[in-house]
Amino acid sequence: MIDPQRANPPVIDGVVLTPAQKKSQRERSIAIALALGVLVILFFAVTMVKGAGVLVRPM
């Protein structure tokens, strides 16, 4: 017979998230990823608008 306690993955530091906490964490991670993506696109767009002059500068 399979012990239900052993069927679960090991718990690190005794922290077990509830399904609501897992959902909240996933939504927060998605929001951070979207914000980072928007920032990357914004930097790219600004670089394109400024043109190749951005790359020509004295060392």
UniProtKB/TrEMBL annotation:
Q: Which residues cross the membrane?
A: 30-49
Task: Write out the entry's keywords from A to Z.
Answer: Membrane, Transmembrane, Transmembrane helix
Name by which UniProt lists this protein? CoxF protein
